[in-house]
Design goal:
By secondary structure, this protein is an all-alpha fold. The chain is built from 5 helices and no strands. It is rod-shaped. The termini are far apart.
Length: 123
């Protein structure tokens, strides 16, 4: 009777002997990584900004870490926020408002400096 050897679903660049030493979970992650899928869920493609996770898994990891550390504030420039399409849409909606507010502030400061120089109080 011949003994059947299981295929360890080859991962590019890693010899079969080395794969035998890894656990099945590690082989699963390596296989998903080489296929370009999320190593956590395996359903969605990896995000460019993340090394191994999709957008949904990045969100869950971020929120889990915020809860664990007790953080109240959000770092909106982090990888998970930059990759999230909902946050991108929100930023596009907020950007014109910020630009208008900055322009109004600039107009107000230039008007004050003109008023000061007109009254002869400039330095």
């Amino acid at each position: 009777m011949t003994q059947m050897t299981r295929d360890l679903s080859p991962v590019p660049g890693i010899p079969q002997e080395d794969l035998k030493q890894l656990s099945r979970q590690q082989r699963y992650k390596l296989r998903r990584f080489s296929q370009g899928l999320c190593t956590s869920c395996g359903k969605h493609p990896r995000q460019e900004s993340s090394r191994s996770l999709c957008v949904e898994c990045l969100k869950t990891q971020r929120e889990r870490m915020r809860q664990r550390t007790g953080a109240k504030r959000r770092n909106l420039k982090s990888k998970s926020y930059v990759a999230d399409p909902a946050v991108k849409a929100m930023r596009k909606a907020v950007a014109p408002k910020k630009a208008r507010a900055a322009a109004a502030k600039k107009r107000a400061t230039t008007a004050r400096t003109k008023a000061k120089t007109k009254n002869g109080r400039s330095r």
